[in-house]
Amino acid sequence: MDDKQSTCYRTIKDLVFEFVSTHDGCVDPEELRERVLACFPGSAWKDSHWRWYRYQICTGKYADEFPERVKQRLSETNRRHTQPRGLVKKHGDRILRQARELIAEAAGRDVVLRFKINRWVYSRLQQDEIQKKKPLKRSLWDAGVRACQRCGKPFASLRGVHLHRVDASEDYYDGNCQLLCSICHDS
Ligand SMILES: [Zn+2]
Question: Which of 60, 149, 171, 181 is the most exposed place for a label (fewest CB within 10 A)?
Answer without folding.
Answer: 171
